[in-house]
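Project outcomes to date are best conveyed with an example. Our students and postdoctoral researchers have been running inverse folding experiments weekly, and each run begins with a structure described purely in tokens. The record below, which covers 306 residues, was selected by the lab manager from last quarter's runs and is presented without edits.
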């Protein structure tokens, strides 16, 4: 029998409380979307109301109580959802556009000194088909980091057979409201990646994700280098100003300039490293593209991991 978990689907923004009581301390809002249910209190504290405690990493306490029902008025739907199986790890050995992982790793050396700045973003090297602002100073943001790393790696590997232009650049910058997941679209249409089976399936090694905390504000573009199925931990590579980062590094581990390019051995055992479930609960709207990367070893999952 497939493993399931309980989720709450919120069609509207709901107030969150410290206790299952609307008179309790207000914690913040749970935005419309799907959340993992940690606890349920049907018919509590009176038969007129049902409450549920949700996993909401965007709030300080990481969880909150919401009122699911008041009398005949229902504010959220609680359902059992089937847990997706771990992603099949593709080797991409026969994929013409695939690149060796060591190309990406080598380029990280040119990005390790960058600090995060949302509005002042520069590139460490030119990119084909477009004109970009060049460093110094060494500042970038999430979109420019992902574009600089991936496009440079694929362009160097494939030369004229890989095409990049101003339209693709605008997609990476999410310059249009016609496609809020345009970095994912650009990666797929350019040949760098394949579409993931669904937004919810656990990420493949070297997955590009465009996530939004709500519709459509607080967006973030980042890479998942790997996922550890047994712990559900994810090795997130990004440019950010949060989660122990001020620039390019691994989420909740540290900046590349401080910790080095190679992630810690057994990184999935570190208590602060995020799980895929936390990412899903934070970026309620998301899409992912699996980059065509072969000969992988950066995650150190095991000596024989494909």
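After processing, the design step wrote out the following sequence:
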């Amino acid at each position: 029998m497939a493993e399931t978990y309980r989720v709450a689907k919120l069609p509207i923004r709901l107030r969150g409380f410290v206790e299952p009581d609307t008179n309790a301390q207000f914690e913040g809002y749970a935005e419309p979307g799907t959340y993992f249910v940690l606890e349920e209190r049907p018919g509590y504290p009176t038969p007129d109301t049902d409450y549920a405690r949700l996993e909401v990493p965007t709030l300080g306490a990481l969880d909150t109580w919401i009122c699911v029902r008041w009398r005949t008025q229902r504010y959220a739907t609680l359902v059992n959802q089937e847990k997706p199986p771990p992603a099949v790890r593709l080797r991409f050995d026969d994929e013409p556009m695939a690149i060796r992982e060591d190309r990406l790793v080598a380029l990280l050396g040119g990005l390790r000194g960058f600090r995060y700045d949302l509005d002042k973003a520069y590139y460490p090297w030119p990119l084909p088909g477009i004109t970009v602002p060049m460093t110094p100073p060494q500042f970038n943001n999430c979109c420019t980091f992902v574009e600089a790393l991936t496009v440079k790696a694929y362009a160097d590997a494939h030369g004229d057979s890989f095409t990049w232009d101003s339209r693709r650049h605008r997609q990476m910058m999410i310059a249009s409201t016609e496609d809020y997941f345009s970095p994912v679209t650009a990666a797929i249409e350019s040949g760098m990646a394949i579409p993931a089976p669904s937004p919810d399936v656990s990420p493949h090694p070297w997955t590009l994700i465009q996530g939004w905390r709500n519709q459509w504000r607080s967006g973030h573009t980042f890479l998942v280098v790997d996922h550890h199925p047994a712990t559900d931990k994810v090795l997130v590579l990004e440019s950010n100003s949060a989660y122990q980062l001020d620039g390019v590094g691994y989420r909740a581990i540290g900046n590349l300039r401080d910790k080095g390019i190679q992630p810690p051995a057994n990184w999935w055992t570190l208590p602060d490293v995020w799980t895929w479930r936390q990412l899903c609960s934070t970026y309620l709207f998301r899409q992912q593209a699996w980059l065509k990367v072969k000969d992988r070893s950066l995650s150190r999952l095991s000596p024989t991991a494909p």
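The chain has a mean pLDDT of 94. The first strand starts at residue 4 and ends at 10. The training component of this project remains on track.
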